[in-house]
Design goal:
The structure is a single chain. The protein is an alpha/beta fold and about 250 residues long. The protein has one domain: NAD(P)-binding Rossmann-like Domain (Rossmann fold). The chain is built from 7 helices and 7 strands; from the N terminus they run βαβαβαβαβαβααβ. The protein has a 7-stranded parallel beta sheet, sandwiched between helices. Strand 4, helix 4 and strand 5 form a beta-alpha-beta unit. The relative contact order is 0.16. It binds nicotinamide-adenine-dinucleotide. The site of nicotinamide-adenine-dinucleotide (NAD) has 28 residues, from helix 1. It comes from Demequina zhanjiangensis. This is SDR family NAD(P)-dependent oxidoreductase. Keywords: Oxidoreductase. Belongs to the short-chain dehydrogenases/reductases (SDR) family.
Length: about 250
Amino acid sequence: TDGRFTGKTVIVTGAGSGIGRATASRIAREGGRVIALDISEDRLKEFAAEHDGLDITVVRADVTADEDLAKVLDAAGEKIDALANVAGIMDNMTPVHEVTDEIWNRVFAVNVTGPMKLSRAVLPRMLAAGRGSIVNVASEAGLRGSAAGAAYTSSKHAIVGLTKNSAFMYAETGVRVNAVAPGAVMTNIEARFDSELGQDRVSTAMAVTPTPASADQLAASITFLLSDDGVNLNGVILPSDGGWSAA
Ligand code: NAD
């Protein structure tokens, strides 16, 4: 077999649900060895059971916990070809005058600090190998100000910055770093509206969203950048949104 990921070890976060699950599934079906991590053990078990016979190692891990990330790196081993930072959480759509420290800190820990720490952990191995591919999952909220609350929007702009800086820094090393910015996707992600102002304002942007995409459609965009199909792409923030960002 010669799938796009044959012979490659790929770490996928958030592999228990939605976009991460569809991405991990596609990589495994295209020949990859997948290290699938998620904070939910039940979701991982379900995912593994659905993919019997494929090369999938599940690791229950919270991307905000250093000791969990160490377990992921152990499971992956010395040769790590690619990393997809997909795990993420929404905020409660609050504008900044209403945001709590709790929401702000948790959203940044999961959406920004986790991907940074995993990238920091895998990069020495990729740099030693002279090749590697990282894809971060941003959002429409990483492109403009109208798609979520203050915490989520800021976190997704931060992951865009991390992607571009890394792409620039490693441009001569054989390591590529890109991001996909999904529009609305049908998944299990939870979005609460805890703010009247937030609800009122964000609804105006939602009104021009195209039909929500499937997680498989996002997996197609992510694996495009993650695989050698993305060979000349570095520092790209790819909207995968059916044209929402063109509005
Ligand atoms: P989802 O909730 O269906 O899946 C996310 C998975 O990440 C879940 O299985 C969850 O258990 C896991 N997770 C959450 N916190 C974690 C942590 N601390 N450590 C490890 N795993 C954790 O959501 P999704 O919609 O598939 O979201 C995936 C990514 O796509 C996120 O980064 C999200 O911000 C982004 N995104 C989603 C949409 C959308 O409309 N669904 C739009 C734009 C961006």
